[in-house]
Amino acid sequence: MGETETQAVLHHGEKRATAAPEAPRSFAVADVVLRFLLFAAAVISVLVMVTSNEKKTFSVPLPTNPITLTEVTRTSKWRYSPAFVYFVVALSVAGIYSIITFLLALLALMKRSMPTKLLSHIIIMDVLLLGIVSAATGTAGAVGYLGLKGNTHTSWAKICNRYHKFCRHIGGSIVVSLIASVILVFLVLLNIYALSKRIPK
Amino acid sequence: MGETETQAVLHHGEKRATAAPEAPRSFAVADVVLRFLLFAAAVISVLVMVTSNEKKTFSVPLPTNPITLTEVTRTSKWRYSPAFVYFVVALSVAGIYSIITFLLALLALMKRSMPTKLLSHIIIMDVLLLGIVSAATGTAGAVGYLGLKGNTHTSWAKICNRYHKFCRHIGGSIVVSLIASVILVFLVLLNIYALSKRIPK
């Protein structure tokens, strides 16, 4: 019935799509793949961040007479910045969430359908998570940028000229969480399209 | 027809809602109101941020003999922090976007309907804007928090004990942009619900 309708419409040269009760199956596959990528991005981002701690030894002059040098060991830790703590929490939430929705998407792929109500709830949760993850990316990005460049106006000195490994990890983690945000945008886009496919025209 | 069907369904004790071709009119009204609030929040946030500049005069000792005090004038500007510049740009985009979609929502309210395609595109744009605004809130929040508390580990000194008006403005602006993010979440929630209302069950 839908088949002949499509052909009739195409025959008359109209561009209107016929009412499809479901989005194509490739949508469900893309959904599963994207959710797996989201999980991977969240896990990588958290792991790279929590392994960023770097211990460095500096030579510091002592105010003795004659002046002697002493060795001071300092450790740069992600836990020292509230921004990075929030980042790790947010990306961990994203990781756990992506496992749950990955399983739901896999179930929908096998059952060849997902209830409309569940689909719209998943979109809303995706949107909330997007807000959390992009805020975390911005937060960590702001502190990371200060670490890289410093700010002369507030005399906040950059620290990336001393802690190389630390900054490499932080930067990498932020880039991966940016990728996670983009994946979430694509997931929302895909599912809104899938939802609108169910609306008869 | 829908009325009697609903009653019949309710009579049989089933919880299934009847198929409605459109979301109730109150949704369109709420959409218009929320978009106006979003516009107000974006404008307030930008205005409070750009009026935050504060000039302060400090007494600084000069290394003369005898030591004399000299007056130094310093200005704290939002433009000095890349995070706040991004914040102002992002919230300005949100303000302009909210005017356009406010007019579209008003038009839909008067015409009593919005095409499904336009509605899904507006949801997707809302989601993108949510990403931008929440990232801006996070970015400005991270720098604002450093200004308020500083970070002893990186010896970034707090500046809010010297620039009170500046910090008040920054803080207020961040809170208002957080409200803008929440409004965007509600807008997406509302419109996804409106979209799913069009799906026959």
Automatic annotation (TrEMBL), chains A, B:
The keyword Transmembrane helix applies. The chain crosses the membrane at residues 32-52, 84-110, 122-148, 174-195. Its main location: membrane. It comes from the Eukaryota. Residues 25-182 form the Casparian strip membrane protein domain. It is found in: Cell membrane. Keywords: Cell membrane, Membrane, Transmembrane, Transmembrane helix. Coiled coil: none annotated. It is a multi-pass membrane protein. The keyword Heme does not apply. Belongs to the Casparian strip membrane proteins (CASP) family. This is CASP-like protein. It comes from Lithospermum erythrorhizon (Purple gromwell).
